[in-house]
Amino acid sequence: MKKKYILWSALCSMLALASCESVLDKTDLGGASPDLISGDSVLANIALNYVYNQNLPNWGGVTDVTGLGGSVYSEESFNQGSSANKYLEGTITATDVTDFGTSLNATNNYGKIRTINSFIYDLGSDKLMDNGAKNRLLAQAYFFRAWRYFELVKLYGGVPLVLTPQDAVGDEARDATFIPRNSTTQCYTQMAADLDTAIKYLPSVWQTPSANWGRITKGAAAALKGRVLLYAASPQFNPNDVAAKWQTAYDANKQAFDILTASGSKLFADYGKMWFTEVGNTEAVFITGFNNSQGDQQRRNNGWEASTRPKYSTGSGGGSNIPSWDLVKAYPMKDGKKPGASTKYTYSDQLFYKDRDPRFEKTIAYNGCTWPMTNVTNNRLWTYIQLNTQTNKYFSVENGSINVSNTGFYCRKALQTSDVATSPIDASNTIYSGTDWMEIRFAEVLLNLAEAATGVGRLDEAYTQLKAVRARAGIEAGTDGLYGLKANMTRAEMFSAILDERQVEFAFEGKRFWDLRRWKLLEKTFNGTKGTKVEIKLKTTGVPSDFTATRDGMKLDDVYTNYFTVTLTPNGLMSRPAIAWKPEYYFFPIPTGALNNNPLIIQNNTWGGSFDPLQ
């Protein structure tokens, strides 16, 4: 007989809170006892909240299991160039990869899958609960099972599909439950089936939206299915460009688009402000809810605000996620053309900020920009270097040179400042930021559909979605109405244009690394590079003696033209070795601990085994 496994913890406190606030905002989440759940949807919801809490991604798409997804893994940021990164430096071994789940632990991948399976098993056996309520609860659990397997498959390829809770107690039980790896195709089939179940039983919109903000909807399940099957069609998993995989991905993404638009989803009008509307946000599809509570029991703060602000602006960390010159150059001009390709707007490295895609200003803070980071409306950010004539050494003007940006830039996306947030957080309390994370937003649904449509040769449809994203960004339509896109693109050109669009649309949202990985472009994009060092220096002659006092009132073009030099040093940023991504990293090795624990697990064929992750 299978053991019932839904955890019993914090039930009394959760019951007290459930009547007045959404339990998804709490960190002290537990599940209800199976015996007490019988017929009681309230208690079943509390048990389900434990599943949510275990599986929702953190800010930037980083999960507790993979630890991958942040900007440090792409050219968005080089993480100040000081941290070792075996993945990008080409030095990982099977003992370095530990994401698989190598022990009996409720918090590793298979521990979380066991919790989900136990919830499905126990609730599915309940004969007392109303079928409609039960199916909605089960549908959410199926969503998270697909999510958890997707996190595994995109790392390793096929993994063991465990769909029921296993009795893994003692050596005999352990030996009886050894399970070999399923093929990658079987895993994708199972994920799609779980998500189809979720789509079937979940509502498009939950009743009482404020109380159910963050609950998985029919549209969220369809959007995740679209993302999953887009991965399956991408070159990492589809190196032979099999047309049927692209068709399956197109059908799934078209279904997601149709479901979401029918329920009112659309692009949020203001790209810079979309993070600061929660309930009713038309852009939000799959979210992780946070709050700004300072209490231990209710605290669920996102960490993004404190880690990303310049360190001198907050007493709690900061200075991370530094935009690179590569990202600065990636943004098109206001007419949608790449820097140097526009006939309307002239680009120069000296005036790099001038006439760029409006998303540039809403994502990247740079020397001299207006950025009310301190909640001062007209605050100007100054990050230049100045010569100390006494010591003949250069120093940064950034408030004593505390952890300053080594590119001259800071990320400003989703930071609560007075230009974007209605009630911005006080700079001294950034550790208590409660801004919600949108793991899937509607713009991704549009670009996933565009990519899948390109895969099946529907380039007109891809143009439609790309233009919609660019129009919302504020790019000029142009006389041809193409928002800067090249007319009559080939299939290959359109794929490239979509990846370029994703790079700027989702900057610092944890998408870029995975996009390059699934398109097998990491070596081409990264290898041999160490990042470009950017130095913006105040000239030593011709600068007014009262420059510091008068600079805020000057036109920025005049300041850069007359008083600054911009020096770029290719491969001068990182102190670490140059990036050396290896082809075998497109499927990571199964960790040595997992191989030792289960003799039926076979290593990937690019790591000395015989398992083919492409099958």
UniProtKB/TrEMBL annotation:
Taking every annotated instance into account, which residue ranges of this chain make up the domain SusD-like N-terminal? 71-230
Q: Which InterPro entries is this protein grouped with? A: SusD-like_N (IPR033985), SusD_RagB_dom (IPR012944), TPR-like_helical_dom_sf (IPR011990)
* Metal-binding among keywords: no
> Which range is the signal sequence, renumbered to this chain?
1-18
Q: Which CDD domains match?
A: SusD (cd08977)
The answer, when asked if Signal is one of the entry's keywords, is: yes
Q: Where is the composition biased (Polar residues)?
A: 292-314
Ranges where the RagB/SusD domain occurs: 283-607
Please provide an example of a Pfam family that matches this protein in its UniProt record.
Answer: SusD_RagB
First-listed, main subcellular location of the protein, grouped into a coarse class: membrane
Locate the region Disordered. 292-320
Kindly list the places in or outside the cell where this protein is found, as annotated in its UniProt entry.
Cell outer membrane
Query: Which PROSITE patterns does the record match to this protein?
Result: PROKAR_LIPOPROTEIN (PS51257)
Q: Which UniProt keywords apply?
A: Cell outer membrane, Membrane, Signal
Q: Which residues form a coiled coil?
A: none
Superkingdom to which the source organism belongs: Bacteria
Give the family, as the similarity comment puts it. Answer: Belongs to the SusD family.
The name of this protein is RagB/SusD family nutrient uptake outer membrane protein
Recorded source organism is Arcicella gelida
